[in-house]
Design brief:
Blueprint lengths: L20 H13 L4 E8 L6 E2 L4 E7 L5 E6 L2 E2 L9 E2 L2 E7 L4 E2 L5 E2 L8 E4 L5 E4 L2 E8 L5 E8 L4 E2 L2 E8 L1
Antiparallel strand pairs: 1-15, 2-14, 3-13, 4-12, 4-15, 5-6, 5-11, 7-8, 7-9, 7-13, 10-11
Length: about 170
């Protein structure tokens, strides 16, 4: 029997190590950043031609990551709310990630996009209200095994919108 894990543990504003979480995870990744065996790569789901989804639409996407690589986190663009900037959040959608080779679902239930965001702005677009943000780091790097096949299920929110979920990966050279 396993102990259930709350999805709040993914939210950087409610973790037990609030204020220290990124530093402790970065310490795990620091040695890999200088390792010549790995290079930084980004994988995006869905692909650019499929990222605009109708209201309440559901779609399944396939993604293949080079086996031996390490997934370290998510980049999820936040949309700036000009009236209340402290409430900036990503577009509303739900996601389930399945490691096909292990038949392992990452979350017991589809997870709201809010829990994959990490609103620590790094830049703001001059042509839109989109902004970049520091990645939401996983508690430990997720090793990619087998063929590296993943299934990404996305359920869109109540409005038609552009959804993108970017995986930060240290790809094996």
């Amino acid at each position: 029997m396993t102990t259930p894990i709350s999805p709040l543990t993914l939210n950087p504003l409610s973790r037990d190590t609030w204020g220290n979480y990124d530093a402790s995870v970065i310490a795990q990744l620091a040695l890999l950043a200088a390792d010549p065996c790995y290079t930084m790569k980004f994988y995006k789901a869905p692909s650019s031609d499929q990222e605009v989804m109708a209201a309440n639409a559901f779609a399944t996407y396939g993604m293949r990551i080079t086996p031996g690589s390490l997934i370290f986190g998510f980049y999820l663009p936040c949309v700036m709310n000009e009236e209340r900037p402290w409430t900036s959040a990503p577009n509303q959608f739900w996601v389930q990630i399945t490691d096909v080779d292990l038949n392992h679902k990452w979350f017991s239930d589809p997870l709201a996009s809010l829990f994959l965001a990490n609103f620590k702005p790094t830049f703001m677009s001059q042509i839109s209200t989109n902004m970049g943000s520091f990645p939401n780091l996983l508690a430990s790097p997720y090793p990619v095994v087998g063929r590296g096949a993943f299934k990404i299920d996305i359920q869109n929110g109540p409005t038609a919108q552009r959804n993108e979920l970017v995986f930060g990966v240290l790809e094996v050279c």
